[in-house]
């Protein structure tokens, strides 16, 4: 006998966005102020901030790198056999930014700056130029991490006196409101500087590309800033008030770009936290031009819904409370659909679902585990799990808080080399 489809209780929960404008009258104090003293204090604070910015630019802008690429791309003409000419080869050019991270001359940048058009022709030719030098030198890719949108390149024939590493900071200690200085080459205007603040320290956005070099990568924690970032800033450093690199500028939110196709700064830019890049550096340096991949536990999501013409894995927060209660599921968490054999998850004893339950708009696999936290941090989707693993290396362990039926327990999972292949 078939189970009845749950039509009423398993309803996807939508988020209604609204805004309330408060127009309370501001009370006016009767205390007198000294306009001259206020103006002098404001001028002093402004001058102090300007001097700090000028000093940071003077000391660390020489560590900024201007990157240019050229790639021969084959343009296909499907009617060439009849009207001619046939396929043509064109040279596609690109620009971006990067910065020195060590005395050997290694340069961190974005993967998309040096990747070129995958499968469209020869590999891009990369050249770099440093400040106070009119000459450019070739550079080669040492390691690529498409899912993180990161790459490490190394110049060839660059004089040692031009290598000026910029010190790396600690992005885990960032606070919203801190000063942020972006360096790069917006629209090809090399060695440009903009200033703003850190708008958010934990904005979850898709960063990077899939293993094939196309499509979206992993949803990661990113730094949001209002320091102006534009095309060409990609790969450049985001610095704090001490001159330490706190992030790598990677993308912008551009409402105008959606209409025109040309992205422009709208005061919402994103940077990859420097701690994520720092943890990847050893693997990038040892990649020998190859690819560094994000670690995997060996599981797939068990709650799938239909969204915009494709199936999407979601967390339990997408379902109604009543539906989860009837199915014996926790309020939030990642439903484990399948566990790959011989994977870290399988060796740790995680179990996938074995009973499929359909509902309007999707389906869920029941009978397996639900991961509700990783190392004490809540998990509600596959992206949360990936974000928790992003800085891990072979041999590292994570502790999962798992619910199976009505029983909760902690499970230790150790990553191995298979997790990174």
Summarize the structure.
This protein is globular. The protein has eight helices and 22 strands.
| Order of strands across the main sheet | 1-2-3-6-5-4
Q: What is the CATH topology descriptor of the largest domain?
A: Pdz3 Domain
How many strands? Answer: 22
Structural class by sheet pairing and helices: alpha+beta
Q: CATH homologous superfamily of the largest domain, by name? A: PDZ domain
Strand content: 25-35%
Corresponding CATH architecture of the largest domain? Roll
Q: Can you give the helix content as a percent range?
A: 10-25%
What does this structure look like?
This is Peptidase S1 and S6, chymotrypsin/Hap. 17% of the residues lie in helices and 35% in strands. It is an alpha+beta fold and 421 residues long. It has three domains: 64-73 and 90-162, Trypsin-like serine proteases (Thrombin, subunit H, Beta Barrel); 171-285, Thrombin, subunit H; 299-420, Pdz3 Domain, CATH 2.30.42.
Task: Identify the notable features of this structure and list them briefly.
Thrombin, subunit H; 17% helix; six-stranded antiparallel barrel; PDZ; 421 residues; serine-type endopeptidase activity; Pdz3 Domain; alpha+beta; 3 domains; Peptidase_S1C; disordered N terminus; 22 strands
Secondary-structure map:
Blueprint lengths: L34 H26 L3 E12 L4 H4 L4 E13 L6 E3 L1 H4 L10 E6 L6 E9 L4 E6 L23 E6 L7 E16 L10 E8 L11 E3 L5 E8 L2 H6 L8 E5 H12 L13 E3 L1 E5 L2 E4 L7 H7 L6 E6 L4 H4 L7 E5 L2 E5 L3 E5 L2 E2 L3 H8 L7 E8 L2 E8 L7
Keywords: Hydrolase, Protease
Protein name: Peptidase S1 and S6, chymotrypsin/Hap
GO molecular function, one term: serine-type endopeptidase activity
